[in-house]
Design goal:
With about 190 residues, the chain is an all-alpha fold. The protein has one domain. Helix content is about 65%, strand content about 0%. The chain contains 9 helices and no strands. The radius of gyration is 16 Å and the shape is globular. The N and C termini lie far apart (about 40 Å).
Length: about 190
């Protein structure tokens, strides 16, 4: 077993099971801890600069819609939520870790190497923005800029900045795209 608890996936990172390993990690959290971290993200972080729409994230999670949800994004949200958690709470302590970044942050860094190679969608962009912020938070400014910059480049590469008035996308999806574009612009400043 690797130090990140990712088993043989570290030996074969392109294995489709890396997604399953991370889903298992999320499912292994107690519902109370999971909900606390998620709530911390929505209340303390995402309320200032919305980069993720809560209802769309949960709708994507519930339906398996990859355009609204990814395990990578979920892990990044949990890592940011941990930033606002009571580190003395015994339920939280196992996720804090021994190094500058949390155990959850380490998992986000691990999956980012592989997600960035294969994914180019809104949840990946949102996750990269959050990961950039996580990196800034532990003093790794160069990698923080790298992840935020990658998110911004992907945002424009897939055309989220284009006018979508005549597209077949729903009004909610168009709004989400605009929100992500603005978040990329702000993070890239």
């Amino acid at each position: 077993m690797s130090p990140l608890g990712l088993g043989s996936v570290v030996d074969n990172p392109h294995s489709p099971s890396h997604e399953e390993e991370l889903q298992h990690f999320i499912a292994s959290m107690s519902p109370d801890v999971h909900d606390t971290l998620m709530n911390n993200f929505w209340v303390h972080y995402n309320s200032e600069l919305q980069s993720v729409q809560k209802w769309m994230f949960y709708a994507g999670l519930r339906t398996g819609d990859a355009g609204r949800y990814s395990t990578f994004l979920h892990i990044c949200i949990l890592a940011i939520g941990l930033r606002y958690a009571d580190k003395l709470d015994s339920r939280i302590h196992e996720y804090v870790g021994d190094v500058s970044e949390s155990v959850i942050h380490q998992k986000a860094l691990w999956i980012a190497r592989y997600e960035a190679e294969g994914r180019c969608d809104v949840p990946a962009i949102q996750a990269l923005l959050l990961l950039g912020d996580l990196e800034f938070g532990v003093g790794r400014y160069n990698s923080g800029w790298m992840y935020a910059g990658l998110a911004s480049r992907l945002c424009f590469d897939i055309g989220l900045h284009r006018e979508r008035s005549e597209s077949k996308l729903s009004e909610e999806v168009v709004h989400m795209h605009h929100m992500v574009v603005w978040a990329c612009i702000v993070y890239d400043e």
